[in-house]
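Researcher: Please predict.
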Amino acid sequence: MSTDKIDFVDNIFQGSELRRLRKARKETLEVFAQRLGVTDDMISKIESGKRQPGNLLAEKIERVYGLSRFVETGECSLSPTDQPDDNGGENLTIEIRYLAGAGNPRLQSDEVVATMVFPIGFMKSGIIPVMVKGSSMEPAMYNGAIAGVDITDKNVVSGKYYAIWIDDEGALIKRLSRERDRVFVESINPTAHSFHVNNEALQDHFILGRVAWWINRDTE
């Protein structure tokens, strides 16, 4: 199987991402534009790729909808120019695999489905990039998103995203919240299943790692 070559820089805040965001919230062009304080014609041109949003509009989109134009970290918004440049701006080409299916507990499948060029600052030791399947984490993380999972960080911090292992499903990405005697496993998409896991039922391999960042790809 041939793999897709994905250039990181070409997949940041594409017009189709804005369209996906608007449709996920079931908003018309007019309503979406009104919330952002711009014309619907401007939004239409951005969605069709005829123009790019300026920094002021991008910041307003982030503020109004709680999303990042660059890489979602749960901490801050990062772009390639924000990354540490200790290696002279060097990039890395990394093989990407899907999250693993049911079977032996593991993070990723064996088959390479894409390659991706990353600024080296994204690939600190312990981070493994994987491709997300399904819509359970939309509109935060879309089908085909690339998530960087830090397999060295398995401490549950409420509200953060983690790769977890479910025996009959495989590796999944969910938002976790620690409660007194259990962990709440949350799907962002309200149509998807969320559930609790009691502390005594947690297995050693339940948490595979924390999601350090993710990139919603332009797949349309």
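Model: The chain has four helices and twelve strands.
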